[in-house]
Amino acid sequence: MTQVFSQNGWPAYDTTTHFTRFTAAEQKWWAANDDVAVVFTEFIEQFVKRVEAIAGKVLDDWSYANRLVRGSTKTVSNHGSATAIDINALQHPRGVANTFSPSERVIMRDIKNKITDNAGVSVLRLGMDYKTTVDDMHIEINASPAKVKQAANKIRERNKPKPPVPQKETPVAIPKVDLNLKQLFTLGASAASNMDTPALRRKVGDTIDLDYLLQWGGAGVFRVWKSVTAARSEISTLSRQVSDLQNVVAPLRGDMARMEEQIRLLTAALENKTP
Fold it and tell me: What are 257-271's pLDDT values in tens digits?
């Protein structure tokens, strides 16, 4: 069977088997292939956005039609190759010039001129620009498949979702705390008794530094002291520092010898709670 071609040189068929179905402006259309669908979608969407809405309830929008050019006995219409569309035909009938306002005509030509191949040449032709019978409703492909593919790829690249812009986080200042882990404490009788182990014997008068105390008792020792001693102000300060630094304990201040009586009271509370 001899292949038939439409006016613009694209293969025409008597069924839609070879064509692509696509949706634009909530309407269904036919296109010769995916690239033509991308080009027509861009034009239609921009037309609706910038010129006028498509009258969706009125059946006057077409793409594929198996027919000849009106008035011809042998030339196949570009509609026959699904490379032409008509928009709002009742509002813009064939043969009637200037159915669009001057500003609308400028916009339509601007839309057309932004759908170009890699050389910057538009791949569309508007029926309003016909030299013989004007056809304001009509838009058609006016380039080779290779040129239309270039235009479609440019549209795809333009419309590709942009990667999200990284958001800069505002740095949060953390108060500087001088952790004097070498601060020394002298053990009284109760403290020495509590910290005495077979591996490491402790006696009254021994000194330990804060680093060892934290390893031995952890942050919990300060919570216990807070509940059983009268040193409220000093322990409250340490508690706030612990919270700010996520349980990094700030150094104890004061003299353990001065707190020996309080630690004696602590011993009773820690009988079954030895860390």
Answer: 456 666 666 676 666
